[in-house]
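Quick one: structure for this chain?
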Amino acid sequence: MAKKFNVTGLCLPKYHYMVDISDKLEEIKTYIDAGEYFTMNRARQYGKTTTLEALKERIKDEYVVFSLSFEGLTSEIFADENTFCVRFSGLLYDTIEFGEVRGISDGLKEELFQFSTDESGRVNFRSMTNIIIKICRESPCPVVLMIDEVDQASNNEIFAAFLGQLRDLYMKRNKRQTFRSVILAGVRDIKSLKVKMRSENEHEKNSPWNIAAEFDVDMSLQKIGISGMLREYENDYHTGMNIERIAEMLYDYTSGYPFLVSRICKLIDEKIAGNKTFPDKRSAWTKEGFLSAIRILLAEKNTLFESLTGKLKDYPELNEMILEILFSGKSVPFRPLNPVIGLAAMFGFIKNRDGEVVIANRVFETVLYNLYLSKEEIQKNEIYNASVREKNQFVIGGHLNMRLVLEKFVEHYSSLYADSGERFVEESGRKLFLLYLQPIINGTGNYYIESRTRSMGRTDIIVDYYKEQYIIETKIWRGQEYNNRGELQVAGYLEDYHKDTGYMLSFNFNKNKQVGVKEIVVGSKLIIEAVV
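Got it. Here's what it folds into:
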């Protein structure tokens, strides 16, 4: 059976194209070898389940591994101590019964079975702890416990009590046999669960999971690993793709987010290849095919994007911070102890780059921009409606006339917002330009924000439109010297992108400013600057 790119559930090397994560498994194994208990908390669809499965295969010759999942467990399971212990015993029993765990005696297996079917109400944490000690004492190898989808147990005192039992065993492991290592996997860090599970008058330092080691393994996919996956695909299909270039684009757009990498590849392989524009795989695995896949991705309604945007409704303070980062160009220091920043990082919205908060990847950033710019109240904006009315004049023969876009934006902005103050522009200037741009490129092109320049007081917008790329810097006028430096920076940026022409949009509050569009030559580069 031919391999596929997989974005639904567990990935298996036999059936799916996958990035080799052997180096990450070795790094995680060092935690197990050291006897650490830890939480593998990462955002949704970040490869946690796949990593746990691969880790189990990696260590199975050295350890007895009980690999469990709380997925699908209902809240009734956590109703009381007995109900939880009966079900947990059943999960342990099933791993033995189905051959996933070997070396456990028939007597212990039968004892687990009796626990898992007990209706007397006598099974409790003490009896379950005793059988765990027996299993670890009689096991031919050290025992590792993995529990996936622990989010299912959030806000639950019974689960907190269970963690307390594991902690107690951990603290007494010099006297009693117990698990060598315990790994809990989920989106939420167990620290955020424990705050909700423990009563308000109990100090957080008494948490049942304060024994956990800090888990620092980078689970994002790197360019070299993505290249290896593409090389395996290329060996099967001989598309002639530039593997390193495609891998670099995949990483640049996703920052190695596993679901996004696989989803883009799957779209190219199954949706782009064979359509009218890209009749075969050879034509699909190109920059143009890649950008077409990005357009499909940004337009689809998948579970990851729904989860991401749903969090903005659930956490208004998170929504406010993301808005400020996107549209105000605000620099936010990365302070993980800040509750909002901690939430945003946990859910996968942001990452730490040189001590500052940035959106986690280019795809997420564009999804968020599209979300905010699609709000009904924003689309009622006059400048958006002006763009909708005039959008047909900007494209001739498939070529986007970016100079004309800037000229018309200046015209409408001057008419509608000429008397607006500096604060208005800082909060709304970029948003207004993106609103004006969106209907023009919608359906054919896409854009993203180059976040590396946000902290420099400017924002670079990169527009991809029908095999062409346009670099547009937006900034607020801070004087001629600052503007001159900006022009040199744009020229350098154009050099990086191998472009001869770039664009600038300056919001100027000088009373003597000259509104309009002009051309500036910087070295060998042409910069078309619009001033409003």
